[in-house]
Amino acid sequence: MFQLMVALLSALMIYAASNGAYWIDLQSRMIEKSISEENERLSSMRQELHQIDAGQAQPKLFRDPARAGWVGEFLGTRTVALPVAVLSPFSIGHRDLYPYYFRVSTLSAENFINEDEIENPLNLLAGRFDVAFVIVFVLPLFILAVSYDVISGEREDGTLSMLMSQPVDIKRLLVGQLLLRAIALIGATIILCFVSAVLVGINVLEAVALSLLTAWSLAIVIYAVFWFVVSALVNSMGKSSATNAVALFAVWLSLSIIVPAVFGLIAAKTYPVESRLELIAEIRDERNRAAGRSNERLTEFYREHPELRPSEPIKNDYMPGFYAAQIAREEKLLPVLLSYEEQLARQNAFVERLRVFSPSMAMTSVLNDVAGTSLSRYQRFVAQVYRFHSEWQAFFLPKMFRGERLSVSDYEAFPKFQFVEEPPTAVLGRALYGLGSVLFLTVAGGIAVSRKLKTCSITG
Question: Where are the domains of the chain?
Answer without folding.
Answer: 1-460
